[in-house]
Amino acid sequence: MQPRNMSMSGVVDLAAVKAAQEAKAKAEQTRAEAARHGGSGAVSPADLVIDVDEASFETDVLQRSAEVPVVIDFWAEWCQPCKQLSPVLERLAVEYDGRFLLAKIDVDANQMLMQQFGIQGIPAVFAVVAGQALPLFQGAAGEDQIRQTLDQLVQVAEQRFGLTGLTVDPDAEPGGDPAQAVQEGPYDALLEAAVRALDSGDLGGAVQAYRNVLSDDPGNPEARLGLAQAELLQRVADLDPQEVRKNAAERPKDPAAQIAAADLDLVGGHVEDAFGRLIETVQRTAGDDREAVRLRLLELFEVVGAEDPRVAKARRALSRALF
């Protein structure tokens, strides 16, 4: 699987929203399940540095990045700067006590991964958070610079993705897999079916699968996010973007026209435009029309996530518009 670029500037598109919220929900679920079943979910300090190849990349990097930021050290035996950098990263991985996982990839043995990340020279250090890749630095770097970069990575992973890292126990047995102690959640099969339906374009099937989960567990965060996203994609699937934009421009007080345009705004990654459009429509309308717009805006908040600062800002603006 080819990594996707992730900007640390906070730009949100629908794919990033989905990855972030699913990662956070999965991490919270894993911790809760481990606690329920009496497991600590702890790893040994020795397990904070792992060797990864093309065969294990999906499991050891992409999947693990849903619970902890994974820092990738691309290196080679013949690379002298790598021999200086790698020990520093390994020491810091232990020192940071589970706030990131260090994955070491030998570029000579894993040319495909090197090409997928677009690496032109080594040493090169990347991170993967919630399945999304971002470059950290390339070439020689001082320890102070490395620490600053890692601090920023850890902060972004926690604030935007809810990833607080791994629990480390010096007495844990090296090589253990804490996930094995966690039993499968009661809705995992349904949620997995919903994700498969969503990824295959079966939006109706995804909507129904998420609703099935929510009928038994109304507060399930992954199902709530998935349903909001699936319903959004379902609404815009048959829209003519040009006609929607024309209608919205010609009928600024028409709730249906503005709601359709806001849906397209969000799918296109224009989060603030979508929020601003509906807040302005709330100000122009009253009664049932205003309530319909307000409810759609709340649905879009659900898609983006309460932790996003744009949601908090839009909520304040909505309150001013209403009261």
UniProtKB/TrEMBL annotation:
Pfam families to which the protein is assigned, alphabetical: Thioredoxin, TPR_19, TPR_20
UniProt-listed SUPFAM superfamilies: Thioredoxin-like, TPR-like
Residue ranges annotated for the Thioredoxin domain, each copy included: 43-155
Gene Ontology MF term list: protein-disulfide reductase activity
An annotated GO cellular component: cytoplasm
UniProt keyword terms in alphabetical order: Redox-active center
Keyword tRNA processing listed: no
Keyword Oxidoreductase recorded: no
CDD domains: ybbN
Gene Ontology biological process terms from the UniProt entry: response to stress
Family in the record: Belongs to the thioredoxin family.
The protein's name in its UniProt record: Tetratricopeptide repeat protein
UniProt lineage: Bacteria, Bacillati, Actinomycetota, Actinomycetes, Kitasatosporales
